[in-house]
Amino acid sequence: MLYDTFHRIPVYSAYTFYIKGKTQRSDASKIEPQVVYGNIVYLRRQTSDSVELPCACSDIGARVFAVAVTRRWLDPIRVLYLHAEADRGSPHYAYRGRIFEKWDVGKQRVSVNITHLRGNDTDIYQCVFFHDSSAAGYGGVPGVVEFFLHVDPDEPCSCYDYKPLVYSLSAAVLLLFVCVLVCTGVFWPQKQPDNQPIYEEMWGKVPVRSAKR
């Protein structure tokens, strides 16, 4: 027997199929996306995938007038309610726009499709059929099987955050640029101004007198 390590419940067991008189033993070392364990169907999906939940009434011959799809474990809520006289079902607000149903009233079967799965959709789903049988007393009769839907949540990003690296490199480049400027100002030979002696400068400013007086 294998267990789901995320929720710690059994999801697979080495059981035997009987097909046309032949015995075929399942491979217990392989976990399939859909595995039957007792009356629970184990479904594993990824985030944003879709899943189909085919439900059938366990009370054959009953006149069903309503069907409810519920979650009964992590978050016990009514996911969807269908009435035979209604055109469409009434979904829970968390499933609006991503749950669709197909109800075959004559065969007492309901197929529910949930799209754009999220990590918090993980739960055990159950279909409950309501009929007016005197034995049921207008109560709900569970479907033939339940569905344990396991949605793998989004994996956290393992990539390195490059913002600190970019900031560090920018600071290093700026510091290097400043150092280059400082070194250039200190070691670069500056051109000295060509200063003439002061007496020559003064001599050059003496006005030239006329030879005639």
Folded structure, characterized:
This protein is an alpha+beta fold and 213 residues long. The chain has helices spanning 163-187, 198-205; strands spanning 2-4, 9-12, 16-19, 22-25, 34-37, 40-46, 51-56, 64-71, 77-83, 90-91, 99-104, 109-114, 123-131, 140-142, 146-152. Strands 5, 6, 8, 9, 10, 13, 14 and 15 form an 8-stranded mixed beta sheet that branches. Strands 7-12-11 form a 3-stranded antiparallel beta sheet, with no helix packed on it. The protein has a two-stranded antiparallel ribbon with strand order 1-2. It is rod-shaped. Residues 1-32 have low confidence and may be disordered.
User: What value does the average pLDDT take?
Assistant: 74
CATH superfamily of the domain at 34-152, called what? Answer: Immunoglobulins
Q: In angstroms, what is the radius of gyration?
A: 41 Å
**Major sheet: size, sense and barrel closure?**
8 strands, mixed
- Gross morphology is rod-shaped
Summarize the structure.
The protein has 213 residues and is an alpha+beta fold. It is 15% helix and 38% strand.
Secondary-structure map:
Blueprint: E1 2-4, E2 9-12, E3 16-19, E4 22-25, E5 34-37, E6 40-46, E7 51-56, E8 64-71, E9 77-83, E10 90-91, E11 99-104, E12 109-114, E13 123-131, E14 140-142, E15 146-152, H1 163-187, H2 198-205
Parallel strand pairs: 6-15
Antiparallel strand pairs: 1-2, 3-4, 5-6, 7-12, 8-9, 8-13, 9-10, 11-12, 13-14, 13-15
